[in-house]
Design a protein that fits this description.
31% strand; Rossmann fold; Jelly Rolls; 334 residues; 4-stranded antiparallel beta sheet; 21% helix; alpha/beta; 6 helices
């Protein structure tokens, strides 16, 4: 409930894309079953939205050209991840073109490798722009029935609990079950890295995969490592505040002392405490970039505070008679 956006049924040419076979319901549940509702299972992306696009009939059969049309329709209506838990041993240019079009438009295309224990390429999983998915066990071993080979990019758990069309939940096995695991992770990746393109998400899935020798090109996907690879780098900590204390002296023969300092953008507070004279003056001069000079004078202590850009400032302490002083300079970066 609340997980669907409008889709389309290309089999019956109607906007109502109802599942009459059960396969799509199971796939959708693996991807986006709602979480924290004390019901059933948790999908890989429990907050994701499913756009149901029906391209196979109630017996699970469909035409490549219809599948291609469904891919294009989904992408044109805003889909960011295309899950294709389907396929066959052959392909047509229209299907290849549809996958390539989806990727150009910013969608990640994830497709099942098939369940024939074969190394023969299975389409659209073997289309270069797609992420082909084989099925692995909990022990990171290949399922005996899964297709495999260098044309398959990654693997994912091949038996998962999923919703059943008639109600309840049951075991759902096959590369059709492994594929929505990858699709769900791809969808989470879009959320973590909204500006990442399909190639960057695919590379994150592949480079962080756990190798399974002789099975697939890269390995079994690793959700934590994939999302960590895509997460934006944490912002650097703000510059630390600095405090510097300078002690000095002015006399009738040397009435002024000057101190030049480099500051970071933020607030600058200068405090002058002194003894031996009734009054002194304190001046703050922005040197680079130049800015308004501010000055105060009077009895101890004196205080100046300014918000300044990063740069160089000069502090001038001036008096007409002998006085010892302590100048405290605080820089509070913004």
């Amino acid at each position: 409930r609340g997980a669907l956006v409008p889709g389309y049924d290309f089999v019956h040419q109607t906007p109502s894309a109802l599942d009459d076979e059960g396969h799509g319901t199971a796939v959708a549940g693996v991807i986006a079953a709602r979480t924290d509702n004390v019901e059933g299972i948790a999908g890989l992306c429990g907050s994701c939205l499913i756009m149901p696009v029906k391209v196979l009939d109630q017996t699970g059969v469909g035409d490549d050209s219809v599948i291609a049309a469904g891919i294009v329709w989904a992408v044109d209506h805003g889909a960011k991840v295309i899950n294709l838990s389907l396929g066959g041993a052959g392909t047509i240019p229209a299907l290849n073109d549809a996958v390539a079009y989806a990727v150009r438009k910013g969608a990640v295309v994830v497709a099942a490798a098939g369940n024939s224990s074969s190394t023969v390429p299975f389409y659209p999983a073997a289309v270069p722009q797609a992420v082909g998915v084989a099925a692995s066990t909990e022990a990171d071993r290949p399922y005996s029935w899964s297709n495999y080979g260098s044309w398959v990019k990654v693997a994912a758990p091949g038996c998962n609990l999923a919703p059943v069309l008639q109600g309840g939940y049951g075991s759902f096995c096959g590369t059709s079950s492994a594929t929505p695991i990858v699709s769900g992770l791809a969808a989470l990746s879009v959320g973590v890295a909204a500006n990442a393109d399909p190639l960057q998400i695919e590379q994150a899935l592949e480079k962080t995969a756990v190798p399974i020798s002789g099975f697939v090109q890269y390995g079994r996907i690793d959700a934590l490592r994939t999302l960590s690879a895509l997460a934006p780098a944490p912002a650097p900590p703000p510059p630390a505040a600095t405090t510097e204390t300078v002690q000095g002296k002015v006399t009738a023969r040397a009435p002024q002392q000057s101190y030049t300092r480099t500051i970071q953008a933020g607030r600058v507070i200068a405090t002058l405490s002194f003894k031996g004279a009734r009054t002194l003056s304190l001046t703050l001069v922005p040197v680079s970039p130049t800015g308004e000079t501010v000055r105060t004078s009077g009895a101890s202590p004196l205080r100046l505070e300014r918000a300044l850009p990063a740069g160089t400032v000069r502090f001038l302490v001036r008096g007409a008679t002998t006085a010892t002083f302590t100048l405290t300079i605080e820089n509070l970066p913004s």
